[in-house]
Amino acid sequence: MASTGKLLLADVAFSGVKQIPSNYIRPISDRPNLSDVHISDGSIPLIDLHGLNGPDHLTVIGQIGQACQGDGFFQVKNHGIPEEMISNVLDIARQFFKLPESERLKNYSDDPTKTTRLSTSFNIKTEQVSSWRDFLRFHCHPLEDYVHEWPSNPPSFRKDVAEYCRSVRGLVLRLLEAISESLGLERDFIDNKLGSHGQHMAMNYYPPCPQPELTYGLPGHTDPNLITILLQDDVPGLQVLRNGKWIAVNPIPNTFIVNIGDQIQVLSNDRYKSVLHRAVVNSERDRISIPTFYCPSPDAVIGPPTELIDDENPAVYRDFTYGEYYEKFWNKGLVKECCLDLFKPSLNTT
């Protein structure tokens, strides 16, 4: 619960509070230290996908492989998703979070097993400190299984967001082919490892915060899924850990940020890295971000491919199902240590 009597943070934040409620205050050792953050200034690669289907194909594959290996994050332009569609989905998200409290609460649930739900922070049932965000999270593949659960207000939500989901899925599948190829695997290798595939989306809403130095929108974490495609509005907030320093990734209009999740780290046998990132907040403006999380189906078996294992590069992880992994992630919560170490073969085996 965001504060006494209010289920959602936005309704607390806009009630005129001058100090954040105590349940949002991070311990001194775990605060953003905003003055020590670097501006990205090109340090997160920006890759032009226009060349994927032409004579520059191998160059772009090389750039993607290098970004996955060195950064775990990259930005893409000329990705094929129309500018109008991008601005439209951001507008719809903003309209949703501006709806009256009673209308928004029709979608509220603190049950993480619900496939469409509005909630706040991360896992309000288990976390010790709350995060400064509200979120609408929903499943979107296969679309026909889930669209009827989505909000019906704003009126165009289901139609327009479904079109956006289809377009982003097309982009993801192109990127997965490129990542497979960059590892020296068949282009359809990762696609074939995902079972029936899963796609979830979130619309994150970060209200203005009177004391942004004391809390996070989301604390540092890695993504448990395969790959995340992030759309953000024009308000900075995303930060990525690089060489021990937090780097602010400021928005570039009509680009997406792509980050490697834990499952690609496993499928690359640790060649590619799932890196820590976080969301910070500010006192002036609200912020919206819309991540698409692409993941294996729960029964898909994930593990390092035999093609990437030899005497010099033994398997770093045992095989596991994605359902097993996600359950551990959810129970553990957003902490700096990701769950991957739990899936390494025991050093004591003989």
Order of helices and strands: HEEHEHHEEHHHEEEEEEHEEEEH
Which oligomerization state do the chains in this entry correspond to? single chain
Shape: globular
How confident overall, as mean pLDDT? 91
Radius of gyration: 20 Å
Q: Low-confidence runs (pLDDT<50, min 5 residues)?
A: none
Secondary structure category: alpha+beta
**Main β-sheet: number of strands, strand sense, barrel status?**
8 strands, mixed
Strand segment count: 15
The level of helicity is 25-40%
Strand order, sheet with most strands:
2-3-11-8-13-6-5-4
- The number of helical elements comes to 9
List descriptors.
350 residues; metal-binding; five-stranded mixed sheet; 20% strand; 9 helices; 26% helix; alpha+beta; iron
Describe the structure.
By secondary structure, the chain is an alpha+beta fold. It contains 9 helices and 15 strands. Helix 2 (57-70) links the parallel strand 2 and strand 3. Helix 2 (57-70) packs across helix 6 (157-182) and helix 3 (83-97) crosses helix 6 (157-182). The longest helix has 26 residues, at 157-182. The chain is globular. This is OXOGLUTARATE/IRON-DEPENDENT DIOXYGENASE.
Q: What does the secondary structure layout of this molecule look like, with pairings?
A:
Blueprint: H1 9-13, E1 38-39, E2 46-48, H2 57-70, E3 73-77, H3 83-97, H4 101-104, E4 116-120, E5 134-139, H5 143-146, H6 157-182, H7 189-193, E6 198-206, E7 218-221, E8 227-232, E9 238-242, E10 245-248, E11 256-260, H8 262-267, E12 277-279, E13 287-295, E14 301-302, E15 320-321, H9 322-332
Parallel strand pairs: 1-10, 2-3
Antiparallel strand pairs: 3-11, 4-5, 5-6, 6-13, 7-12, 8-11, 8-13, 9-10, 9-12, 14-15
